[in-house]
Amino acid sequence: MQHPVFQSIKTISIYFGVWILLAGIQFSILAFQYHFPFNIALADSLVFNLLFGVIGLPLWFVVRYSSPSKKNRFNLIFNHLTSFVLIIVIWFGTGYSILSLIFQDEEVYTNFLTLSIPVRLISGLFLYILVGLAFYLLIYSYNLQEKAEMEARLNTLLKETELNMLKSQINPHFLFNSLNSISSLTVSNPEKARDMVIKLSDFLRYSVSSGADSMTPLFRELENIQRYLEIEKVRFGEKLVYDLRVGQECMDQNIPVMLLQPLYENAIKHGVYESTEQVRIETTCRVESEYMEITIFNDFDPDAVPRKGAGVGLMNIRERLRLTYHRRDLLSIWKEKNRFFVQLRIPK
Description:
The protein has 348 residues and is α+β, with helices and mostly antiparallel strands. It folds into two domains: 4-163, no CATH class; 168-347, Heat Shock Protein 90, CATH 3.30.565.10. It is built from twelve helices and seven strands. A five-stranded mixed sheet has the order 2-4-5-7-6. Strand 6 (331-336) and strand 7 form a beta hairpin. It is rod-shaped, with a radius of gyration of 38 Å.
């Protein structure tokens, strides 16, 4: 870890600015309380404070590499006592020598300099403690920042893992049924079977080619939805009718990849599959000031025995919306007579 004082010109200025401020306080005491001449008061204040500021810089390394734990308590005390003695001896010895040499003819001040030795040593102790505490607070701040960054990285990784898991829940029955349909078509209509294989390949390529948390324009998502519906239409024929009535203003809006897929799977499973009549699946979209609102609805037979399901599709979508947008109110579902509605509000 770089020495915090030397990270930038700003930190150097702040550090020595504090010492100049302390020198100003000491200057005021010497000049106005002890009535020393301004030049003596200024020299005394600057020499002792700036000198401690320079000599106290290595204290950072003592603080940085001394862990204040119970096991290392003796080493911690020993390291600080050693560094304190060295810093005080160098600081006071150098400062005393410089000022005695400069003002050797000022008998009053040299006497004061000698008499003030105990006070200066005590003040040196307090300065040592203050600098040490400041460095400990900096290390604590760095550790908190590193911990926050690590937690953020872990949360991101967890989010990606959850989204990958959710996105991977493509209905396997769709794949099995599609392959069975292709198998049947290879005898009755080889050209149609070939076309269905291409569409299924494109569908699967789209579903696995993008990251789980990646975004895609709505028009790309609808292109893949159309492939899915065309594949299912091979199975159900005229029983399945779909209409994607989406305006151009929605097409370039981004949504999470494969977000809509489970909704159409549900419409097939609980609408087309269960009904003996023709079932229509419609998709509409509109853009508001803060949201893109996508509504998907399908017919269903209210008298049919509902197929059992774990509700994974809707839970999947709700969870992906929560992970992506940090909202829990973006999915709405309701029924009106023989129609089932699902509405998504995608923040712009």
